[in-house]
Every structure is written in structure tokens, then in C-alpha cells.
Amino acid sequence: MSRIGKQPVTLPDGVQVDIDGSQITVKGPKGELAWRYNPELNVALDDGQVVVTRPTDQRHHRALHGLTRALINNMVVGVSEGYQKVLDIIGTGYRAEMQGKNLKLELGFSHPVEVVPPDGISFQVEERGKQIIVSGIDKQQVGQITADIRKLRPPEPYKGKGVRYQGEYVRQKAGKAGKVGL
User: Fold this and answer.
1) 103 pairs with which residues across the strands?
2) Whether 118 and 102 share a structural domain
3) Tens digit of pLDDT for each residue in 110-137?
4) DSSP label at 93?
5) Which end of the chain is more exposed for a tag (fewer CB within 10 A), N or C?
6) Are residues 151 and 93 in the same domain?
7) Could you give the number of structural domains in the chain?
């Protein structure tokens, strides 16, 4: 039995779950998310908990069991608390600022880069333009937008300049040693 899959998903106050065929809809104070799960699995609502069960012990059912439970749990956490990721901008002249809902980044290019948030995602700029907070209710979407922003100027290994996740360790390389003794 899957250790993750057999755990029920507890619903906090204010979160409603609707299961219709093979689609699950989760509504909460922060918004609403819907997802179509594999119809071979059984998802049921049992007095304030969502329980996922699998029909057989076949390999693909075991894999889908834990995955389905984890994705439903991510939806419940998203609509009740939300998700956020923090990016740090390191480098002279590198900064971020808000233009309405859009994020304007100056990352050493000849032009500023503008990032338009999709529905359900919001940006916040902190610490004089050196920190970006990406927040939303969909965990996958928050992670993807954060990764796309980081990909614009990933941290380089010599000076460490670029956009990195908060707490990310970037290994520093030594530069050229130069000519010695000639």
C-alpha cells in the first residue's frame, strides 16, 4: 500500500469538495480549483476527508494512488492557504519593480523584461527591488512561473549574479589563476 496514498486528505474549515465522475472540484476562501483524475482510481468523500483507493496492486495503479492523493492535497492547501515562492535578485543594476500587475525586470540586458502574470498568480516586490514573491493557489503554476523568471538570468558560478530561489546555494568557482613566474 502506498504510504502517501492511504492517508486521507483532511478538509479544513471553509473548504468544499465536489466529486463528479472523474473530476474533483475544490472550493475554498482563496478560490476554486478543478482537476480530472484517472477514472480507474476511486476517490470518495468520507465525513470531512477525501479518501483515495486503488482497484489493484498493479504497478501503474500504485504509482497513480500516491500521485492522485498528493495532487488533491495540494489543491486543498492551495485554496485554503495558498502557495508562494521567493526569488532573490543578486547583481549590480539588477532589480525588479511593479508596473500595475506586471513585473518589470532589469537584469543586465539592453532592455527591461516584462512578465505578465497569468490568471491566479500575483507578484510582489520587496527589499528595494531585490526580492520577488510569486503567489497563487495552484502549486504547479506558482512553481512554473517562478522557474520561468529564474530562467531569464540564472545565477552564474563566478560572481553569483542572477536570479535565484531564496536559500538556493550556488557553488562559486575560482576565476583564472593568471600567469605566474614567467
Assistant:
1) 98, 115
2) yes
3) 999 999 999 999 999 998 999 999 999 9
4) T
5) C
6) yes
7) 2
